[in-house]
Amino acid sequence: MNPTIKRYSAADVPEAGRPGFWVHAGDLNQALALAANREAALQQRLNIADQRVDDLQAQLANLIPEGYCIMPRRLTAENGAKALLLGEFKVTFAQECPECRDLAEPAEGCAVCDGEGEFASDQLISWDKIKHIYSQAVTGLATKIVTETAP
Length: 151
Hints:
- By secondary structure, the chain is of the alpha+beta class.
- The protein has helices spanning 25-63, 81-85, 127-141; strands at residues 7-8, 23-24, 90-96, 118-124.
- It has a two-stranded antiparallel ribbon with strand order 1-2.
- The two termini are 71 Å apart.
- The chain is elongated.
């Protein structure tokens, strides 16, 4: 037996609750070395992947023209657009006051029009209209990615 290799019994290793469990120091050191080598290899692969992501982000930034941004092609509840935009857009209409309509002059202090003869009424733009407007904008303004071809 090699005197430099120390053997541990189950009593020496608190996690070893099984009878007859033995830990050989050489085996343990070998397993630790293999784990360290694997960690180093994984770290190297991670560094390469990080560099690739950085390179792709730089390439992508060069593909987006000045003044443009990346946006979804369609507005959906799933991409958060519905919660963001629903209820944000409205059209204001001027309507004739129903209280003052039949009078020669609008009533001073009218509760509806305050003597103006008409009042403003806001109409929300529907979600379907918002999506249609956005779709038309995407169709008309989307840029085409031009890829370079070899001569």
